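SEQUENCE-TO-STRUCTURE ENTRY
===========================
What this section holds: a protein sequence and its matching fold, both as plain text.
Tokens: labelled as protein backbone structure tokens, with as many entries as the chain has residues.
Question of interest: how does this chain fold, as expressed in backbone structure tokens?
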Amino acid sequence: MAKDRIERDELASKLMETAASAEDPLRAMAELLTDFVMEAEVTAKVGAEVHERSAERTTHRNGHRERRWDTRLGTLRLQVPKLREGGYVPSFIEHRKRSEQALISVIQEAVVKGVSTRKIEAVLEELGIAGVSAGQVSQLCAALDDKVRKFREGPLGEIRYVWVDALYEKVRVDDRVESMAVVIATGVNLEGRREVLGLDVIPAESEEGWAQFLKSLKERGLNGVKLVISDAHTGLKAAVRKVLKVEWQRCKVHFYRNVLVHVTKRSQAEVSETMKAVFVQRDEKSAKAKAADLVRQFQARFAKAMEVFENGIDDVLSYLHYPQPHRVRISSTNPLERLNLEIRRRTRVVGIFPNTAACLRLIGMLLVEKNEDWLTDDKAYLTFDDAPAEESIKVVSMAAGQ
């Protein structure tokens, strides 16, 4: 008890000392408290105090990174500890993140329903969120727009694999409600970690729209791409070949669906099982031999399905040109589809966005947070430490004309 009491007295003394010398006492005390919390959490994660020798230590501290945290007390400048191995995100930011998402969703929904910013204050008070004025609502939107803009315009680097996809959201344009494509690109960098590379809202998935999006990624510094994974949208495929000039992988999952839609329901399981034999092969030659067997087996019964299969099999086997440990993840757009599901769970609350800026604001903030989670994940998504694999990728790049 005595030790606990001394610690509380010391903390109180530090808080009063900090407040006395600060222009904004409350904000200064909040920053001090967050420092104490972060150091305690990092100590628990590392298994040792600063400079302490301990057999239970799991990693070491590696300096700090500054992080802005917007609160009702104002903007706090956090000095978040970094670790040599594994990431660290303060627990109170994780909690705050969920509450901010909910708040943003409420504001967006209110705007869509024609509620003015002044009336939003009353809506928030009904939800128990008091003290947020109409001016603060406008400032919040402006601050989010600025953060999303910086994220969308930030520099990119060398990315090995790129996944691209689109989801459609209803957006109000003048007096009409239109279904617009939200195009998203993610990738894996040379450290094996996933990144959100970019997003945009375009009227439709035309070749021109996709080409402009991919060009914007290149202008921000995207380089080193070896493979792009997507569904079989004609405009997207053409834009990848034209702008990035790299090999293209047709999503294996979408390919299955494209073939099976031309097969009777009672025979779909049979055809699907036979197709699986193609995709478990370890090299392209064996896979194409199995593919030829499949076509011969089902040609008479399902001619249209086999036509779709033959026309797409070369593109859907591109993943076999790459390292074995990577193949499961680069053979489909499933990683990006899961991200899309998370986005839809939140945009469903909104229904119809009042404009494209509001759509970019909400989805952009979700992607900013997801990007931070990926970059601080304890485990890499892929590894690039296999010399033969590097040679294999070089050969593919030459074949693709890079």
The longest strand covers residues 159-173. The two ends are 69 Å apart (CA to CA). DSSP finds 15 helices and eight strands in the chain.
